[in-house]
Design a protein that fits this description.
Blueprint lengths: L1 E7 L2 E6 L11 E9 L2 H8 L15 E8 L11 E4 L9 H4 L25 E4 L2 H4 E3 L6 H4 L5 H13 L6 E5 L3 H10 L6 E6 L2 H9 L4 E4 L4 H8 L5 E6 L4 H10 E9 L11 H4 L5 E3 L8 H9 L9 E6 L3 H9 L1 H4 L3 E5 L2
Parallel strand pairs: 8-9, 8-11, 9-10, 11-12, 12-13, 14-15
Antiparallel strand pairs: 1-2, 3-4, 3-6, 3-15, 4-5, 5-7
Length: 346
Amino acid sequence: MKALVFHGPGQASWDAVQDPAIQEPTDVVIRVDTTTICGTDLHILKGDVPEVKPGTVLGHEAVGEVVEAGRDVRSVRPGDRVLLSCISSCGRCRYCREQMYGQCRGNGGWVLGHLIDGTQAEYVRIPFADLSVHLLPTAVSSSDAVLLSDIFPTAYEVGVLNGGVRPGDTVVIVGAGPIGLAGITTARMFSPGRIIAVDLAASRLEAARELGADAVVNAAEGPEQLVEDLTGGLGADVAIEAVGVPETFELCARMVRPGGCVANVGVHGKPAVLHLEDLWIKNVTIRTGLVDTYSTPVLLGMLAAGRLPASALATHRFDLARIEEAYDVFSRAADTGALKVILGVS
């Protein structure tokens, strides 16, 4: 088969590799129908995730068809169309029993495209299939469903729920890429008083406004002052960091009000300064986290009911064999206007 193989920082190529096979009785092998590229994949290519070894197939998001199932798999069978979760869950360890699947100690967690071969390939092996894939309703398109592999659960769980968004809150989301935009749509479920989106790209700020942000501001044009003006000097109730660089985390910490919460979603490859000399007295909560994907069934139900605008985030489509071109487009989002690029098998 062909797959996108990581060869080291700044190096990946569409190569011929060995087909995956069942290794454990709880595995399935999936023929990939649709996949996509995540900002985390760009972090891997930058060298921000050193655990990813050269030779690893990238990717952790996909929809596909089950072609082979291990003898202990009960929930799906060959021929089923399924959504692949970016998180694998053994279902037995302490963390899985507490629905903290991202912290799985039984060889699960975020393993796809990280510790084992991932989904940017023609076929992929999925461990712990009964807990890590979801049957798809026929009415749900693959290009919409693939956005529930990662970005919607991540934005919802690590941003909105960890941030404790409540009715009437002022929510500021720093980073209007796919995660930030999914954060806007899922934060709206809780009727916040206002949502403010911050980004450097005009195209992403426009997308934020279209998806429900009440105010948008360029990161270079005084977001702190806007938040102060709109809140009467109090600051944001919830500040969601959706970029993953020190400057945006520190910006969120400055914009949050006393008693508020900073929810960090971004993947950080460098240290950020925590200004405890300012924050120690402010009762501020800082939440970090890896998505657990416990919310995927709820979000999938909302998608099937037409209540989750997933398709609005898909801006570019490519054949899977053009994945290297798709990476170039996605990595230059400020120039190309790319949000999510959808890769399908023709």
